[in-house]
Design brief:
The protein is mostly helical and about 220 residues long. The chain has one domain (about 1-220). The protein is about 85% helix and about 0% strand. It has nine helices and no strands. The longest helix is centred in the middle third of the chain and has 30 residues, at about 90-120. It is elongated, with a radius of gyration of 18 Å.
């Protein structure tokens, strides 16, 4: 656990020194949501109907902005090879780096979401469900994205390839995240959707570190 915490702290320090990456993610999220009222009009009922989908799609796309660099910087400077040779295990390293990635990208998106719910006229019944759904969904997106980031290490135009790899895997999280919020705003049961999203998170937490570690090993070897 001390080694895990040390890797997380290291990545957080690096992210702090390169603070613009996290700021760009949040700014993209905010700007993407703000553009929709200009496109579809300011009619409150229309905005309320599409609010959950717009916020979720913007969060999904924003979380992808920094995925390519999840392992790329360490791969280029040789740090990833040291992690590979260390007795810690690549799986723990992957999990630590994904944790740091979520803290610097997913968590700021959750913090920014309440302001955007007001802009999009999201009904009050769906506010807390949106926060809970994002809290379950954004770490799942980071975990799944780690697999794609590991597979595109060293490849040209890795960002485009990464998008093609992970976007189809993001769709179930998007569907159930939006469905939970829509159900809450309509007074329908939403517990099942949140339980399914929790299952996605636990499944990704159990499987993706091993899949991403295998992709890193292939890139290094």
């Amino acid at each position: 656990m001390s080694a895990f915490a040390a890797i997380v702290a290291r990545d957080l320090r690096l992210a702090l020194r390169q603070g613009m990456d996290s700021v760009m993610v949040v700014m993209f999220f905010v700007i993407a949501v703000v553009l929709f009222p200009f496109g579809v009009g300011p009619e409150p009922n229309m905005l309320a109907r599409i609010a959950a989908g717009v916020i979720w799609v913007a969060a999904l796309l924003a979380s992808m902005l920094s995925l390519e660099r999840l392992f790329q910087t360490d791969y280029e400077d040789g740090s990833l090879e040291l992690f590979y040779l260390s007795p810690l295990g690549l799986e723990v390293t992957v999990l630590a780096k994904v944790t740091a990635h979520w803290i610097t990208t997913g968590l700021p998106l959750i913090v920014a979401a309440p302001v955007l719910t007001v802009l999009m006229n999201l009904p009050a019944d769906g506010f807390w469900i949106l926060i809970v759904a994002l809290s379950l969904g954004t770490p799942t997106l980071s975990l799944i994205g780690a697999i794609g980031a590991a597979l595109v290490l060293g490849s040209r135009r890795g960002g485009v390839l990464l998008s093609l790899l992970v976007l189809p895997l993001f769709i179930p999280v998007l569907i159930f995240g939006v469905s939970a919020v829509d159900a809450a705003t309509q007074g329908l049961p939403f517990k099942a959707q949140l339980l399914i999203m929790g299952g996605f998170f636990l499944g990704a937490l159990a499987l993706t570190p091993f899949a991403a570690a295998a992709g890193i090993r292939q890139s290094i070897e």
